[in-house]
Design brief:
Distance between the termini: 27 Å
Radius of gyration: 16 Å
Helix content: 55-70%
Number of helices: 7
Shape: globular
Number of strands: 2
Strand content: 5-15%
Length: about 160
């Protein structure tokens, strides 16, 4: 089992106890592939970031970054002071990171096995059966990028790059 990924998944299970299978898979997807699936046009990505930042309530109590492994961090928009660190710079880093992090499906599938093992150990609130059912549908769909669950969005209001 990848020790780094295992530690990150365990930490997220504690920090976000309402995670559902799709939330854990999203974390692993971003760990392997980064955020490149979001970028079709850097200028459009910046405009979207600006809108999302404007709509995100500030919460300086949040950590600015959250390690998701594989050399990638999530920058929490609620904790970001755009006067101190401009959104244009964050977008540049996001685009560059996406160019550098391509990922491989075979590695991603191996990482999903780490998730399965931890789920079998009872690390997450969802059951091994729930994860198995989700992963079967997810595999059949071709391992696409996924969004956070409604439950996760409602509880944690994720907004990051």
């Amino acid at each position: 089992m990848s020790a780094e990924l295992e530690a990150i998944l365990r930490a997220h299970a504690v920090r976000y106890p309402l995670m559902e299978p799709t939330d854990a898979v999203k974390l692993i997807f971003q760990n392997e592939f980064g955020g490149g699936h979001l970028i079709t046009d850097p200028a459009a990505t910046l405009r979207y970031l600006q809108r999302e930042y404007s709509a995100t309530p500030r919460d300086p109590a949040l950590p600015l970054t959250e390690d998701i492994g594989n050399g990638i961090v999530r920058v929490q928009l609620a904790a970001l002071d755009a006067n101190a660190f401009p959104l244009e710079r964050l977008n540049e880093l996001f685009v560059r990171s996406a160019e550098e992090h391509k990922g491989e499906t075979a590695c991603f599938v191996q990482k999903l096995k780490v998730l399965q093992a931890l789920t079998e150990q009872g690390v997450f609130a969802f059951s091994p059966g729930e994860l198995w059912d989700y992963l079967a549908r997810y595999r059949d769909a071709g391992y696409p990028p996924v969004s956070h669950s409604a439950r996760y969005r409602g509880a944690y209001r994720p907004a990051y790059r």
